[in-house]
Structure to design on (122 residues):
């Protein structure tokens, strides 16, 4: 029994070691386009309000709007280009543990808030 235990323990240890050291690179995607039922001026103010409600730090209120959000090891960055009836969201510069990634969950929450904001603006 003992002669099987040591090789099994070594194998388990090596598997754990490999699992801890393998990093999965999180790929960034192209800018996301989102259609909204508002003209540019109302849409711009709605996006700014939505970012503030979601606790994003707004770096530039111009067009494109630039903002970032930090949570633990994740640093989400967005550049939002506002035009009539649509927004283009670019996440270039976002990192998770130092690796590039797309903060999909944060974007989903932000877009949900912008959808709710369509009702505020009308």
């Amino acid at each position: 029994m003992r002669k099987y235990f040591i090789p099994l323990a070594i194998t388990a240890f090596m598997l754990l070691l490999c699992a801890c050291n393998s990093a999965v690179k999180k790929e960034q995607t192209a800018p996301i386009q989102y259609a909204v039922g508002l003209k540019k001026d109302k849409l711009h103010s709605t996006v700014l309000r939505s970012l503030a409600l979601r606790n994003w730090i707004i770096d530039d209120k111009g067009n494109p709007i630039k903002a970032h959000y930090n949570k633990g090891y994740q640093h989400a960055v967005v550049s939002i280009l506002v035009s009539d009836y649509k927004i283009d969201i670019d996440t270039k510069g976002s990192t998770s543990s130092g690796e590039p990634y797309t903060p999909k969950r944060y974007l989903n929450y932000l877009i949900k808030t912008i959808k709710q904001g369509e009702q505020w603006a009308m």
